[in-house]
Specification:
Shape: elongated
Low-confidence stretches: none
Number of domains: 1
Structural class: alpha+beta
Number of helices: 3
Distance between the termini: 23 Å
Strand content: 25-35%
Protein name: DUF1488 domain-containing protein
Organism: Aquibium oceanicum
Largest sheet: 6 strands, mixed
Number of strands: 6
Pfam families: DUF1488
Oligomer: single chain
CATH superfamily: Shew3726-like
CATH class: Alpha Beta
Radius of gyration: 12 Å
């Protein structure tokens, strides 16, 4: 199966300081997080929730591409970071 992103919803997870979004591998949901640091503009410090969601929306296509590359099968969650995958 191919990882797909039919649902455009995303949310900010304050505890993780990350944007959460869902991918689908067939009927299975795959949870992804993008750390706030990965969405921050260089040298701007920790972005706000609104900044993170705006940055996510602006880079959605590239983030989905990175998520597809990181996806290796149905495991719990994937965390996309500045340096790659955690």
């Amino acid at each position: 199966m191919t990882l797909d992103f039919p649902n455009r919803s995303r949310s900010y997870d304050d505890a993780r300081h990350a944007v959460r979004f869902i991918g689908h591998d067939g009927m299975f949901e795959v949870v992804f997080f993008v750390e706030a640091n990965a969405l921050a503009r260089s040298g701007s410090g920790m972005p706000s929730e609104a900044d993170c969601l705006t940055a996510f929306d602006a880079a959605r296509s590239s983030i989905h591409d990175m998520a597809r590359k990181a996806y290796s099968g149905r495991r719990g969650t994937y965390v996309l970071t500045v340096t790659g995958l955690r």
